[in-house]
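Figure 2 data, in text form.
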Amino acid sequence: MTNLHVTDDGPRDAPVLLLVHGSASSVRSWDALLPLLLENHRVVRVDLLGHGRSAKPADADYGIAEQARRAGAELDRLGIGHAVVAGHSTGGLVATALAEERPGLVAAVVLVDTGPSMDTYIGPQTAFDPEQWARLTDAQIREAMSSAFRPGFEAPASLVEDVRGMTFAAFAAAQRGAVEYLVRQSIPDRLAALGTPVLVLFGEDDRRWRPSTALAAYRSVPGARVVALPGVGHSPILEDPGRTAEALLAFTGSRNGGDR
């Protein structure tokens, strides 16, 4: 029995999109985008281990490579042999790792405001201990999440619930796993070595990763399609789902409808 919560929507004979959420989030972060994608795609979403409605074992491996392996296993379970894999923020690390591990499975990679390397990080250095985590109020969670959006955009209640639903052990281990993956090798270098088709969407008002540096880094990847989104922060899938979907569909459409 799987330990992961998975949703599977849309026509079963349509090209498959696997959507991977970011840190301390869940499949619900894609809710606004989902209706815009279902006409042309079968959309699979997964709550990574430790997140959302998936299991949260204290002693699990929350590293990026293992999270990617689990996501790939879910596609296998569904009988899916090819998919475009899109990840938001840390979910983009999982998408990249899955392409590294399963190049025959991943038809293309879409990164949405995924930091290319740790030296581009400009977000707050937020640190919690287990006691603080247990006492966090909704207001404190929203304040900690504020850099994930453009100024004035309020985090949806569902995201606050996702944070509250995580254990401190899972949260801390997942954060460590993401940093370790980025430190070992930058995402542009990983993508360049793969040769997988790539779309990068990046908000020009991102307050967690320096946008100008990130965009330049991804433009160095041969063949990558890089789209800057003016007026958008770190979370285009929530802040501007329309423009995000338009860019994503243009990319999959240019690939003859994607891969099934």
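Caption note: The longest helix spans residues 168-184.
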